[in-house]
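To whoever picks this up:

The nightly regression suite flagged TetR family transcriptional regulator as changed. Nothing in the input moved, so I suspect the structure step. Input below, exactly as stored in the fixture:
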Amino acid sequence: MNKQPQVTERTKAMLCKAFWSLYRIRPIEKITVREITEKAGYNRGTFYLYYRDVRDMFSQIEESLLNMIDDLVADMLVDDDRIDIESNMGVILKAAKSHYAYMSVLLGDRGDPTFVTRFKEIIWPLVDRYLGITKSPDMSDDERRLLKEFYLSGLVAAVTTWLSMSNRMPIDRFIAFIMSNVFVSLPRE
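Regenerated output under the current build:
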């Protein structure tokens, strides 16, 4: 008998919440299925209906977040060649803020480096469309790679720091600050 989708989603959400409360304070290798299920108020069998193991749960959480961000970026890139980086970054920041519990950890020191790398690759087309680094004829491939990493690492670090602030500035103010103080456009063709 299939459970109702709302019950399934609520159960998975409770298991994820329990996992995340543990992951925030210790490494994934030290977290057991038993701990997660006890904290969530379910039995181990319920856990195994949705996940193979703790790593699978973690992967599904990451994949879900990355797919959501990828969909947002894809929607923005479908528009014409012009890009409004401020509006687009606002959409990504709102998504990061609404999934704060996950994003602040995944992008931070305790996060998965693979997640950060994939996150950067997803947002790169937006940043590049604004900066035009890929199309710049004056740069070598190595110079493009360096500049790409510079901008992406800076953006990820700024977003991570912004998410960790107890008195977080509003999204529009954060974007205006980054745009006016850090995010300098390269000369375009």
